[in-house]
Amino acid sequence: MAFGLVALAITLAGFFSTFDAGILPVLVYVAGTVALLGWLLGRWSSRRKYVRWAIISVHLLQIGVTVLDLVLFSTVTWDAVLGSRLLTLVVIVPLLLSSAGRWFSESRRVTPAGSADALTEA
What does the buried/exposed string (b/e) look like for 87-116 if buried means 16 or more CB atoms within 10 Å of the residue's CB? Predict the structure, then answer.
């Protein structure tokens, strides 16, 4: 989400400095991705399995859109695909590990602030 906000700021700066209409599709894509990730983060504050798979699917969607863009403009190379989405792959790979699966399958234990459990956890 943080990288998406940085990308949105850079894209907005690029658009407003040049007013190039070619930047508008990129701006819509980046804003839509950031909005989707923000909605997912705001909607699911749990550690359930579907949250993990929703995060993975959004990142795979980003890779798919990048590959589609490269295919449409006949510029598909491994360097272009991996270089533009390296951080996305860095997010996906740890989420596919079994330790991430165990973390997302456990429920968060919520304890009241004044309880003895909360004091021993701190």
Answer: ebeeebeeeeeeeeeeebeeeeeeeeeeee
Residue whose entry in the numeric block shows the structure tokens 């456990």: 106
Q: Is 15 exposed, middle or buried (0-12, 13-18, 19+ CB in 10 A)?
A: middle
For 75-106, the pLDDT digits (tens) are 777 777 777 778 788 888 998 999 988 888 86
pTM of the complete model: 0.60
CA distance 62 to 67: 9
**Helices 86-95 and 49-72, packing angle to 10 deg:** 150
